[in-house]
Every structure is written in C-alpha cells, then in structure tokens.
Amino acid sequence: MAKRKKPTDEDEAEVEQGEEKSTPKKRSLGNLVIDMVQWSGDHNSPSRRRSVRKDEIPESESEGEPGASGKTNGTSDGHKSRHKSVNATPSKNIGFSPAKKNGEYSIQRTPSKGLLGKKLFATPTKNAETTETNETPRIVRNADRSARRKSTRNLIERTILGNASDNDEDGEDLAGHIYGSDEEDGLEDADGVPDESRAPETPSKRGRGKGSKNRRRSPTPPEDLTAHEKYFFHNRGSRAKTSNNNLSSLALLDHEEYFSRARSMKDSHADNIKFLEGLHAEDFKQWQFELNQQFNICLYGWGSKKSLLMQFADHIYKSQADHTRAKIVVVNGYVHNLTIKDVLNTVASAVAERGHKLGAQPAEMLENLIALLEEDKEQEITLILHSIDRAPLRKPAVQSILSRLSSHPQVHMVASADHPSFPLLWDSSLRSTYNFLFHDCTTFQPYTSEIDVVDEVHELLGRSGRRVGGKEGVSFVLKSLPENAKNLFRVLIGEQLAAMEDGSGAAMEGNEYDENEKRPTNFKQNEPGVEYRVLYKKAVEEFICSNDMAFRTLLKEFHDHQMIQSRKDALGTEMLSIPFRKEELETILEDIMS
Amino acid sequence: MSDHEEENSQASYHDTDNQAAYVYHPSNIADEEPTRPMKRRKLGKQKAALDQLQSSTTSKFEALLNGKESVECIQFRYELYERAWFHTEAQIQTILDEANEDTLKDVTAFVQDSMQERSNQTNRETETIPAGFIVTGPNIASQGFLFEQLSGHLRAEVNGPVVALRSGDDSNLKAILKKVIRDATNQKTSLDGDDEFTTGPGGRKLLNYDLEILHGFVRAQGSQAVVVAFQDSEAFDTSLIAELIALVSSWRDRIPFVLLFGIATSLDLFQERLPRIATRSLHGTRFDVEQTSSLVERIFKKVLAGSHAPLRLSTTLVASLVERQQEHAQSVQAFTAALKYAYMCHFFANALSMLTPVLGASPPYALQSEHYEAVRMLPSFKALVKRLIETQDFSRANGLLEDDTILLDEIQSSLSNSPVLHLLRVAHVVASSSPGPVSSIDLYMATFDGTLSESDFASRILESTKRMTPDELDSFLQQICDAIQNGSLDMDLDGWAEEDSNFLEEVTSLQSQVSNLADQASKSGKPVRSSYAIRNQGLRTTVIAQRVQLSYEESTLTEQDKQFTTLVDKLNARLKEYFSVESPKDIFLHEVWLYDSMLPYRDVFTPAPRARIERALFAPYDYLKCDCCESVEGLSSTHPATAILYQMYLETGSLINIFDLWSAFFEMVSGGEEQKIDERDALVLFYRALADLKSLGMIKQSKKKADHLAKTAWKGL
C-alpha cells in the first residue's frame, strides 16, 4: 500500500503540469482551512483527478516488486526507457547521457542505481560516489547549472512579482521542470528506491558544495518501522504546502479605519462578557481578604483584565478609610517604555508626597523605598499591576525587584498575566517571594489598551513600514528633508533592493536546503539589510556626507520617523533596513528619482 | 507611537491607559455613595458595637447564609480565624526558629572563634580568611529567611557589622563593594551621582567603593569582625566571588573579614567552581541546616496532628499537599501558605466555622435559626439521624430535626468531648509502640482515613508482639503505658491516664502477668516463648524437616509457654480493638473542624493558565453561557473572533497563508452568501484576532514565504 500511493501522487503532479488550469491548491491537502474555502470554486479537478487515478492504479498494481524500476506513465515515457537502460547498463549510460536533452536525469539516477540493492537508509558508500564524480563530465554539470540558474531566476521573478503561481503557464512549466528536476527524480526514484533521501549526494551538486537535499520526502512511511520511528516519521517537519496567494488584493487597514470601525462595531457577546465580569467582581471581598493576609494575587485567563482590576481598585479605594495613608498605585505593564524605576519612583511618590530621591540602581532604590515605607508602619500601598508578563517587565532582574517589593508586608500586589506560559517567569524562589494566589479571571474582553492591534498585525504581515503612514508618509517626510538626506535614502533603498535580489535567491535556496525550519538563524540572515559601514562608505563616495557625525545626524532623522530599522546580526554588525516590501521600495525609489 | 493610539475602540478611554505608572485616584468616586469613616481593625481589639449597615461594608468577611448572617456572627468568624491562625503561625514560627537555632549558634561560635584566633595572633599575619559554608539544601526559597535570622543573630552577638549579599542585587564588583561599605557603615545612600567622594583621614577624597572607608570605620568602632554573607552563592558569577575573595584577602591584615556562603548544592561542587587561588585564601567550616522534609514533618505533627490544632485537613488534601511539597515546591513557606489558605477558606466560606473549637476562644454567640438549618444540611447530621433511626430512637431523631434546643445540646456535647482527641491518642500510641520509625504524615493519613486498624502500622505492631520474648513484651507494654501517661510534646498531647483508665489497667495487668512469667522463666532457666515465636523458630532452623520439626515444637510447649501465648493473644485482641477507631468523617459535625476541599487549593496554588486560555478559546460557551453558541465546541460562526481564528489555527499546517486564512475567516464570520457582516468590519475582527494570537505567542511572521505565518505552538499536530 505504501508503495502504491506514491505513484499516484506523482502522477498527479505530472498531470497537473499538463493541465492548463490546475491550481496549486491541489497540493495543499495538509491545509484544511484553505482547502475548505478553495475547493468550493473548483469542482472539476477532483473528478478529473480521480479518473487519472483510476487509470493509474491497475498499472501500479501490476508492478511486481518494488525494486523494479519499470514504471509506466504517458507523460514520462522518455524518462522511463532511459531509466531502464540506466539500470541495465550503467557504464554505457554515462557515455551518452550528456548528449541527451535532460542529461541531469541520468547523472542523478546513476548513484541511485548503485544504491538499489542496498537496504533502507544505508549510506551510499564512498566508493560509488567517487567513481561517479570522476566519471561525470564537467561540461554537462556546468550546462545544467546554468539552465537551472536561469530557470531559478525566472521562478523567483515570478514569485516575487506575485502574479503567477507555479503552474500557470506552459512556458513556466519548463522552468519548473528544470528547477524541480531533482525533485521529480526523487519521486520517480521513490518508487523503486525508498531511500531517495540519499539524493543529496548527487554529483551535479557536489561541485557547488552546497548541500542540496531532495526537497520532498516520500509521504508514506517505509515499511517495518517500529512504533516510535513511525511517530517521528509522522511528526517530522515537512515542507508546508500552502497556496501562493498573497495579500496584494486586500487593502489593509490603517489605524484610522481600524479604530473608527472598531468603535462602531457591536459585539454580540457584550452582555455575556459583562455578566462574566460581574461574576468575577463578586469575589472582590475575598481578594481583599487575601491581600490582607499577606498574599499577593495574580489573575490569569483569556481576555483583558484591565477593567476588572480597575473596578477592584475602586472597591479597595472605597473600603479604605484613610486615603492619606493607604494608596493605590497602578502600573501598566504593557506600556513599552516602562521601567522598574518608574514603578519604584511612583510608589515612592505615593508614600512621600513631594519628590523623594531613591538613587540610581534599582536594588538600591528598593532598599531606600522600603526604608521609606517603614518610617510609617500604618502606610499601605496597593499595587495594581496590569500585565506583569509583558515585555517591559519580563527581565529576571526586574521580576526579582518586583517580588521583593510585593513581599513587603505594607505592600499588596494585584497583578494580571496574559500569556499562557507566564509561570515560567518565576523560579521557586521568586514564586515563594511573590506568594501569589492565582485566580482564573477569563473575561473575554478585548485587549484594547494592551495591544496595538494594527501595528502588531502589520508587523506580522511584514509591513511595519506602514507605521510611518505608508510610502506616502515616507515621501512626505523626504520632501521636507534636505537634498543630502534624500540622496542617502535613495542609496539605502538601492542597496537594500540589491540585497533583496540576492537575499530572495538565497532564501529560496535556503528553503530548498532546510525544509523544516530547524535553523531559524538561517532565515534571519536572509532578511535583507545594508551594513552600516557599507552604507557609510557609499554615502561618502557619493559626497552625501563627509564624516561619521554628519552621517549619523542624517540617519537619526530617519530613525525618528521610523523610516529605517537597525538591528544587529549574529556577528554583531549593525544592519540598516527600510521596513517596506520590495514593490513599495521600488515605487519610493521612483518617487525620489522623479 | 502613532497618533491614533489614544483613540480607543471602547468608549471609556482614560488618559492613564498609556501612562506607565501612577497613583490612583478614582474619578467617579464622588458620585458613588459617600464613604464612611472606617478603621481597619487590628487583631485582639475588642468589638465595637457596629450597626448593621456599617459593618456590612467594613467587615472583612461576607455575610453567608444567603446574606442573613448577623454582623456579630461575621465578626466572630473573623476573629476566630485570626485567633486560630495566630496560634498556628506562632507554632510554626517556633519550630522554624528552633530548627535554625543550632545552625545559628554554630555559626556565631565560628565567627567568635575566628575573632578570638585573630586577636591571639599578635603579628596579624593571618594567612587565610575564615569562611563558613552553610549547606542549606535545595530549598532556596527559605534561604532568605535563614540569612535574615543569621544576620540578626550575628549583629546581636558579634561586635561588628554584618552584610548579606544576594545575587540579584548587584552584578559587578564595584556595586558589591559599594553595598558592603554602605551596609556596614550604615550610612544613608548617596543620592547624587554614582561616585560620590567621602573625605577620608588626612583629607583624602575616597571613592565610595574604597575599602579604606570600611577600614576607617572598623578602626573607629573597634569592630572585631566584618561578616559578609553570600545568600545564594551559586547564583553569583564565579569570577565575581573570586575577585571579591582576592580583594578581601588583600585587606585581611587591616579589616577582620569573615565570609559566609549559603550553598544549595554541595560543598564539593561549590569548591570546584571557584578558582584555586580563591579557595587557597579561605579556610572554611561547614554547617548543615535541617532539611526541609524533616522540618515539614515537624510542623505537620504540631499544627495538623497536634491536639490543639483548630482545623485539620482531610487526607486527600494532605496527600496532594505533600505531593506538591515533595515533587515541586520543596519549601516550608509554600507548605505554610497552603495551610494558611485552608484556614482562610474555612473561616471565610463556611458559616458554621463559628463553631470551630479554637483554643482560648469564647464560646459562640447564640446561633441563628439559619445556622441550625445549615447544620441540618450537613452530611454528618444526616448520618447521625440515620443511625438514630436504625437504632429505633425515633423521638431523638425527631427532636434533632424539629427542635433547635435539642440540636444545640447535641452540637455542644459533640464538640466538647472532642472526638478527634481519641484519634490522636491512638495515633500516638501506634507511633510510640511501633517497631520501626513512623512517618507522622502517613500515620495521620491512615488515622484520618479511618483505616488505621487495617493499616501497615497496626499490623506491624501486632505481628511484632507475637514474636517477642516476655522481656521484650514487658518493655513494649511499658512503652504503651508511658505514651498514655506522658502524652506527646510534639503533638501537644498531655497524658490521659485518667480518661483512658480502663485500657491502661488492662495493659498494666497484662504487663504484670508477663513480668511474672519472665521472672519464673529466669528462675527456671527455661526461656518462655509464645507458640507463634516457636513456630517461627522452627521454620527458621530446619527447613528440610519442616513438618517434623513443627509438630515436635508444638508438643513440647510448656505450661508457661501456653500461658504466655494466651497473654499475647489477649493483648493482640485488645490492641486490635483499641486501634480500630472510627473514621473522622463519621463523626457528627466533623465539617466544622475538618477541612476537606481540594478545589480552592488546586486552583489557587497550581494554576493551569494554558489549559484555561485554550479552553476559553476552544469552547467559549463554558465561560460566556450565551444562547448563540450553546455547547458548540470547535468552529462556529457565533464564537468570538479570536476563538474562530484559534480554531482555524489548530487545523492548519506549520505554515499559514495569511490571505487564505483571511478568506476562510471571512467566509466563516459572514456566513457565506448571507453577508452578515461588512468585509471591512470582518477585517477589523480578523486584525484583532490575529494580534491576540500573536500576543499568546502562537504565531510569528514567516520568513520563508511572503505573506505567511509560522506556527509556534501546536506544531505538527
């Protein structure tokens, strides 16, 4: 059975290539959501596909043993015969293969032949490889490579321009054919040789030194795997099959539209959410008692707990008799520029009305603050801390200071936590210092103040440049800048576009090379950017600026308008980039030039 | 930040939303009801006569019994809680203090010795710095407490400053030195600038991390030791400690340093981490601290199994508490907090907790009729009535059901004879007569399960008596008598010879008979054994001729042997009877002193945030209870947007095409052809849901493909 399914799959692929209108969706079987939507419009193809399958099955059944390479398919007849001959007479094959149209096939096939008799996952012996390399004519390899390169470029262009999917046109088919040639090889081999994953040893690629793996592994597990091996087989990373649709047809929201629409929208669950909050509010008395008993409280669960906590603050305020001694301090943990010093200073200002200097180091500040608190034992501070687990407060040093502050008998802390893994912030020592009681407060309220929805989503979509107000914003800013700045920006765009050109190619290769996202750093590096020093050199060459100082001043202007981003790569070199996509960059460049 | 940020989709926008931290003054408080002047009550303050209205807002507890509970009762409950917990907390504190006392004494003696040694060496050519290594074990949570005690103790006993350092405080040598000097000289911190100058002797300006300042201070004060304690030395950067040691040892001829290290792992490991040069300049003594497990057991014995314990925990709760203690928390503080929370829950949420017998508390007020109703609802009351009916005592059962005064009598009598005391006594007898060491926690569990007589503890004792010689049995019986007469200090049990005179008499009479036999045996020179012991010996000696041997031994039982055997039988029967105690759950009104509720404990101390969040998203109905998505799990167009997207997220592969996700989402919310929602509005929802998922750490931008998301949770499912 395992063997049988493969040929059908492959046939599909091949038939697809022939079909004019077939869409890539067919392959995205793994993606249910996408399937659900897209199948609805596409009624023909399944049936057509089925018919192909019907034809195919008896044939594949007729194949006797898996080792036999004999495999029939209308479209791949030519390959087939050669394939056979390869198996029959390897030495001869090498002789004439360069002359053949698709010489690469034979080259790639030959090593697999050497592996034919071997058992599953056996490493090809060096012997076989070396002879292979030696015997392969160099010219062929080069020729293949250039063909491949050309088709690669072709493909990349299409993908980047985003208007065509792989199988749209016949002409592209050829490119896809060349480009995906070793993939197909792998598939054909898969029938005969289960370990086509050995294909990386193909000589044609060795020359480049670039490790090239076959790109798709066989979808069905090899037989006689033990249970645990089967588990890993099923859970291995594989290339995700997704469609090539992109968001170009969708007009994204900007802040204005988002907020105006969000405000006028009505949540059908508003009453239920309100009721839920009311339920939690019934516990206020209990929480107050718990705070009173030197416990601190941590609220978790889905939904913003901000309004609930503010209600609780009101509740506490109302129950406090002496508002000069008992203070409530609210900390918004989600505010980006929040520091622990802000927290300590605010608490201090609540204790001593006029400004009280605490010192510079947080630890020192904490000690002074505690001393200040203990001057008056009746003084009580209730610390309401929204989102204790958001980025500004995540650092261990900050958490340790917070925990020690909260453990003081005159300080009562009520915190909320949003992330599902927030307990990982604290080790046993911190946890015991915090002395938290946890309450599930699922409110279902939207995180309106905690999350800047539009910015977050645009970051997800890789369009953080929209923050400036899109490309219009950029050109607006540029108009008000001196000529030098404009020129610098132009240079930067040019460099970045060049880097993108390289980068996307590299990214493609990277994809091919590393399917399962095991090496995130790989992809990080592919993010296009311009090295700081390179840009500086360019700028000096073009007489944009004469010294580093002036260069920095120019850059600062861009930074202030969030038109560029700066980050350190793995080696610590500073990379500058403009947070826009390629097309947008191109239009900006045109704007500047005009 | 963008200009739009201050706009808020929910009408209620506050300036404070984007303020990092501020002191809260409610704006809308004026139009609420005017706040009344109230005072926080302190413990032990006598009750002020409060009118109903006032105390309903001031009292810390809520009115129970459907809000019909009277103010006095609420107040009484609260005071009862304070008293009960105060009592227990004091006991725990005493145990903790005692536990560390030996260590404290040793360390203090060590510091004093080193001072002594130093003053003896007139030439002041000390080669090494004295260092104390305090092995605290893995319980880092209680290190803080220990070192607090330690520095307090040392300050009182030793002439010289004590500085405790924590790894989290400072990360570089300069900061540590500053802290040492600041704490040692007890100066107010310099507030202006980082490197303030202090005028040293001779008008020289000294930086505030110059040990010369400390030197001057030591000379001026005549201090004999400067103790620097590293609370969690493993967490410090090794090089930092090494540098500090090097520095300190170069000053050792002028400043009498003593170093203390708190070590959680082991001394060897710690030494390995330090460079040779640092270890060479130290000479150390090792101190062991009592480990958490034994401390917890002691605390347990006192506050849960102790006779004065106002509240006891049910066995299931104890089991989970102990499990968490052993497998996760490993900390006395966590144990105490859990115990405290049990107390809090009991008195906060149970109206009948005002009947809880707390030592030294005044008897409860007149009960309200609601209280009687509540008592009649208790399972233990129902069981009582059932028992009465089974014994044909209808009039009494009727009285209990109908007449509050009869019920009150019953309540009072059942609380006054404290049935639990008997349990504890039996447990103590078992513990003291058991042949091997007994884990008091396990014994407690067996006792409070009501399975003591079938438990290992009982059967082991019974087995052991059968094998004893008369002399051994004699001392065994003596142990029991002693246990009864002296009680147990650990459990606050006084001797109860008078109350249990029957059993005691039986035991003593048995004892005298046994000792008689033993006397006779020693006179005659023939050992007396019970038939059980003989059989055992017979079995043991000759295995081959087992059968023959046995019958032979049986037949040669002497008269004394037979007598002894009957005595052992009698004792066994009596002990068995004594050990079979009723389960506390069968005792009337056990709900008042036995806390048995797992849920609050589990929820409050061991939260499962991921499970809760994902459940909320998976089955919103569980929380919202709305009509529209009643009990629909999974995908439903009526669910909140984030829940829909989450559901779709679960069904995708590891790479998600955003456009396809959006079209699927739109299809879902708009209901296909129906167009229930405008596309742009749907996009708003989509944005929000996407941002939510991102904040939950489930997705990130994928670099592999344009407009794709990478899944970061639930991958490959």
Automatic annotation (TrEMBL), chain A:
Keywords, ordered alphabetically: DNA replication, Nucleus
Domain of life (superkingdom): Eukaryota
GO terms for MF: DNA replication origin binding
Composition-biased stretches (Low complexity): 122-137
Bias (Acidic residues) ranges: 181-194
Subcellular localization, as worded in the UniProt entry: Nucleus
Record domain Origin recognition complex subunit 2 winged-helix: where: 525-584
Any single biological process term in GO: DNA replication
Region of interest (Disordered), residue spans: 1-228, 505-524
Biased composition (Basic residues): 205-218
Residue ranges of domain Origin recognition complex subunit 2 RecA-like in the record: 273-441
Record-level GO cellular component terms: nuclear origin of replication recognition complex
InterPro entries from the UniProt entry: ORC2, RecA-like_ORC2, WHD_ORC2
Family that this chain belongs to: Belongs to the ORC2 family.
Assembly behavior: Component of the origin recognition complex (ORC).
Function (record text): Component of the origin recognition complex (ORC) that binds origins of replication. DNA-binding is ATP-dependent. ORC is required to assemble the pre-replication complex necessary to initiate DNA replication.
Record protein name field: Origin recognition complex subunit 2
UniProtKB/TrEMBL annotation, chain B:
Pfam families: ORC3_ins, ORC3_N, WHD_ORC
Coiled-coil residue windows: none
Boundaries of every Origin recognition complex subunit 3 N-terminal domain copy: 51-355
Family matches, as InterPro entries: ORC3 (IPR020795), ORC3_ins (IPR045663), ORC3_N (IPR045667), ORC_WH_C (IPR040855)
GO cellular component: DNA replication preinitiation complex; nuclear origin of replication recognition complex; nuclear pre-replicative complex
Domain Origin recognition complex subunit 3 insertion span(s) in chain numbering: 367-596
GO molecular function, one term: DNA replication origin binding
Entry's Gene Ontology BP terms: DNA replication initiation
Compartmental location: Nucleus
Region annotated Disordered, chain positions: 1-51
Keyword line: DNA replication, DNA-binding, Nucleus, Phosphoprotein
Keyword rRNA processing listed: no
Role, per record: Component of the origin recognition complex (ORC) that binds origins of replication. DNA-binding is ATP-dependent. The specific DNA sequences that define origins of replication have not been identified yet. ORC is required to assemble the pre-replication complex necessary to initiate DNA replication. Binds histone H3 and H4 trimethylation marks H3K9me3, H3K27me3 and H4K20me3.
Oligomeric and partner information: Component of ORC, a complex composed of at least 6 subunits: ORC1, ORC2, ORC3, ORC4, ORC5 and ORC6. ORC is regulated in a cell-cycle dependent manner. It is sequentially assembled at the exit from anaphase of mitosis and disassembled as cells enter S phase.
Protein name: Origin recognition complex subunit 3
Record domain Origin recognition complex subunit 3 winged helix C-terminal: where: 610-714
Record's keyword annotation contains DNA-binding: yes
Family stated for the protein in its record: Belongs to the ORC3 family.
